[in-house]
UniProtKB/TrEMBL annotation:
Protein's name according to its UniProt entry: TRAP-type mannitol/chloroaromatic compound transport system, periplasmic component
Coiled-coil portions: none
Keywords annotated in UniProt: Periplasm, Signal, Transport
Taxonomic lineage of the native organism: Bacteria, Pseudomonadati, Pseudomonadota, Alphaproteobacteria, Rhodobacterales
Annotated InterPro entries: DctP_fam, TRAP_DctP_sf
């Protein structure tokens, strides 16, 4: 009898766990990815399933960190999560190839749509590398543009020579051309790195000035967009868990997926605006990049495509030239759609649904 009772408890617990999506994110609970994308998405899913699906948000790296979220999804330590490809490049070489193209100019909305369409519909290698970790990705995010921000007294290209600059991936091209030293520092370590003098500048999102209080030490912002990270897998989900959804739940999962893409783009844009509006109160000033910095950025962008292809081949990516060409086509397509809808996010979401999600296998 005791054995039967114990087995019954396990069965009930397993059933409850299947209805609860444990979402792992190293970002803090108040980050826009959580507040403006993840939480609203699962609120809609709770409503769509009549309360059957609920969310257990594990933010701030409580369960999984920057490098362990994908493995956590694979092992079902978490059901779903936010996966950043640049932290695990050897695991996601196809995804990183697409991310490395982010140095070129694009809006966060069109960039997210293009990256999502490429990953989900035109990149078998992208799908396969996620499946290697028993994971299916449903939406990919491009953030707002990186900027360069530095300690007080660094206001020209010449001032940056020899300085230590936090940078990731192909943006190291810019740092190299500045005659500076590229330093690999994780986002969570940047505040301390600035305080301890380990870095003098950072190529990073403007929103982090406020979110991570980097304006305590970074006092100069170069007002020059440097391109953006575009490898944030917003809704990476354990495949076994997803396959256990009934048909109606799967349809709701797909049907609600376009909105997090538009919501998180709007949140990042708003976050940049907020940081800029408040910066002066924290002793931060914006300076126009000089001609030398602009020329260096142009040179880096001109070289970035060839560098991306070379690094992709070294990482074992098949035919990266085709991947690059497809992404450029999709960026042009989604920038045109963005202009066409002219701020109507319902219309943009309808195109995401029609062009991407309606044709995907359930």
């Amino acid at each position: 009898m005791l054995k039967a009772a114990a087995l019954g408890t396990v069965a009930i617990a397993a059933q409850a766990q299947a209805e609860t999506i444990t979402y792992g994110n190293f970002m803090p609970a108040g980050h826009p990815i959580n507040t403006q994308a993840v939480l609203p998405f699962f609120e809609r899913m709770t409503e769509a399933t009549g309360g059957e699906m609920t969310l257990d948000l594990q933010a701030g790296g409580v369960i999984t960190g920057t490098k362990t979220t994908l493995e956590g999804i694979d092992s079902n330590l978490v059901t779903a999560g936010y996966v950043v490809d640049l932290y695990i490049p050897s695991s996601l070489p196809y995804s990183v190839t697409i991310t490395n193209l982010g140095m070129n100019a694009a809006s966060p909305l069109a960039g997210s749509a293009a990256a999502t369409e490429l990953h989900l519909t035109q990149c078998p290698g992208c799908v396969a590398e996620m499946e290697d970790y028993n994971t299916r990705t449903f939406a990919v995010q491009r953030i707002t543009d990186y900027t360069m921000y530095c300690r007080e007294g660094i206001e020209t290209t010449a001032d940056m020579a020899g300085k230590n600059i936090k940078v990731s991936s192909n943006w190291g091209l810019i740092v190299e051309k500045l005659g500076a030293n590229a330093v690999n520092v994780q986002a969570s370590e940047m505040y301390e790195a600035f305080q301890r003098g380990l870095i003098d500048c950072a190529v990073a999102p403007e929103i982090w000035l406020e979110q991570r209080s980097l304006w305590d030490t970074a006092k100069v912002v170069f007002d020059l967009p440097l391109g953006a990270f575009q490898g944030g897998h917003l809704m990476a989900t354990n495949m076994d868990v997803y396959e256990d959804f009934d048909d109606a739940t799967k349809e709701a999962y797909f049907g609600n997926m376009p909105k997090p893409i538009t919501e998180v783009s709007a949140a990042y844009i708003g976050g940049d605006v907020s940081a800029r509006e408040k910066a002066a109160n924290h002793g931060v000033k914006y300076v126009e990049a000089d001609d030398a910095f602009k020329a260096i950025l142009a040179e880096a962008r001109a070289e970035n495509e060839a560098l991306t292809i070379a690094r992709a081949k070294d990482a074992g990516v098949d035919n990266p030239e085709e991947l690059v060409a497809k992404f450029k086509e999709l960026i042009a397509k989604w920038e045109a759609i963005k202009a066409e809808v002219n701020g109507d996010m319902d219309a943009f979401e309808a195109r995401l649904k029609a062009d991407i999600y309606d044709g995907l296998p359930r």
